[in-house]
Amino acid sequence: MLSRAELDRVARVLEAELGGARLEEVREAGPSEVALALYRGGGAGGRRTLRLSCDPEAGRVEEVPEAGAGAGVRDPRRPRRGARAAPPPLVALLRRRGVGARLSAAGTVAGDRHLRLVFERTGSEGPAERVELRLLLMGGRSNLLLLDRDGRLLAALRPLRATLRDAVPGQPFRAPEAPPRPAGPDRFADLPDPDLLRAIHEHYREWVGRREGEQRLAALRRAFARRRRALERKLALVEGDLAEAEAARDLRRQGELLKSALRRVRPGDREVLVRDFESGEDVRVALDPALSPVANLEQLFRRHRKATRKAARALAAKGEVEAELARILDLSRELEDLAGADDAALRRFAERPEVARIVARYAPREPSPQPDRDPRARPFGDLPKRLWPARYRSSDGLEILVGRSDEGNDVLSTRIARGRDLFCHLDGAPGSHVVIRTGGRRDVPSETLLEACELAVHFSKAKDADRADVLVAQASLVRKPKGAKAGLVQVAGGRVVHLRREPRRLERVLDSREPEDGG
Question: 322-353 in b/e burial notation, b at 16+ Cβ within 10 A?
Fold first, then answer.
């Protein structure tokens, strides 16, 4: 991302070259990027397009050719936004309140990488409209904010809960307090000011292209590895089914022997001893005493037919699984041959239908961050407030919910939690239900999981234990038995986390409790 020295220079260039320019268009340019079309006069050459990016690794301000103004960094697994999809709130608000306004000021906040772009529009009626774009380059906490004329926060491009937890929409924005940052190097010092914004674009276009290629390669490798493991597990199951072919032959043999000794079987017998004249052995044929001799015979042949069909299906499936496994190995080798090639060849490989299907299933993109809720809204709809869980925020920005009563535990685990949310509970002892809101993501950060486990132990009868076992399972595996008392659920699966208590971790997550809102 840009250094403070580079951002200071960008502000001076914007003030000098685009001061007074009219904002004509606002577009979403990527997951963390917005494109602004500005016009200062001078014919066709007077229209210039800026892209403001709060990407955690590549935050920047650049000028892009008009044809590529909307081309942002795109996850190789992310489908393109449909024409009718709603824009992010910041883009929609800036369109309503900023288009037609002129850039009246550009500058930085002293001592930090914060860029301010102020747009003002004078009207014949009422006070002038004034909004400010504030680009904060703060690594993982980077964000792009829209402020009103009084400095109140209107919208943020990235979720506040993961970047600026103390910022509240509708309230005056105060930048996080931090010691002054060093100015850092100016990588473009040899270039004149008129070339600066285009030079930044060229520099980051190459960098972002390399990162996109690395992301695409990692996604393909992950997808192929997961598909290979899934096929290997399926092959093991199929081979287990094939073992039933031998059982099928034995069932037929028992049926034939029972047929020859049917007259000797009496109702209620549990077995019959029959001589096998081919082998010369005496064979014990187990019987169901509740069935008649003929029904026992029919049951043996019925089981034989079922085992035979199952073995036949397994034999056919084995060939298919082995063929697909061989194909995955071929694709993996082909991918490794492309690892050092240019990104265009890797992109063509990823777009092949068979490869795209595997990636979509086994390495899906992370769900888009959910927009920040209006803090005045009721977070749990029409549920009575007494059933609302306590809300905490993990160090990774995920929401952790804790039931506050037996009835509240039931509501949390069976009504509020969603399929891929994680359910946590002290193993084998009473305690609060704890749910990590994953937003559909598959991999929950380990620190978030440990913080949720700390809460599960803290709100239980084992709160003073130094070590504890916590059951963790997907919410989709949690069921409420019919007629069970409040707070009692059944969990079909999951794993046990052996938690070694850490007071600092518990203190941090307890301090993150969010206030109850709504009402």
Answer: eebbeebeebbeebeebeeeebeebeebbeee
* CA distances in angstroms from 448 to 124, 418, 441, listed in the order given: 54, 17, 13
pLDDT in tens, the chain (519 residues): 899 999 999 999 999 999 999 999 999 988 899 999 999 876 556 889 999 999 998 999 999 986 544 444 344 334 444 434 578 889 988 998 899 999 999 999 877 889 999 999 876 554 568 999 999 999 889 999 999 988 999 899 999 888 888 888 888 998 887 777 788 899 999 999 999 999 999 999 888 888 888 888 999 999 999 999 999 988 888 887 777 666 777 888 888 888 888 888 888 888 889 888 878 888 888 898 999 988 988 988 888 888 888 778 888 888 888 999 999 999 999 999 888 777 788 888 989 999 999 988 888 765 555 555 554 456 677 788 889 999 998 887 789 999 999 999 999 998 899 888 999 999 988 999 999 998 777 788 888 999 999 999 999 999 989 999 999 999 999 999 888 888 888 898 899 999 999 998 998 899 888 876 543
Q: Which residues, including other chains, have CB under 8 Å from residue 228's CB and lie 6 or more apart?
A: 325, 328, 329, 332
* Best CA proximity match to 477, nearest among 494, 495, 496: 494
Secondary structure of residue 370 in the 3-state scheme: coil
Residue type, 196: L
- The token duo for 119 is 């747009």
Q: The pTM is what?
A: 0.56
Tokens of 439: 């937003």
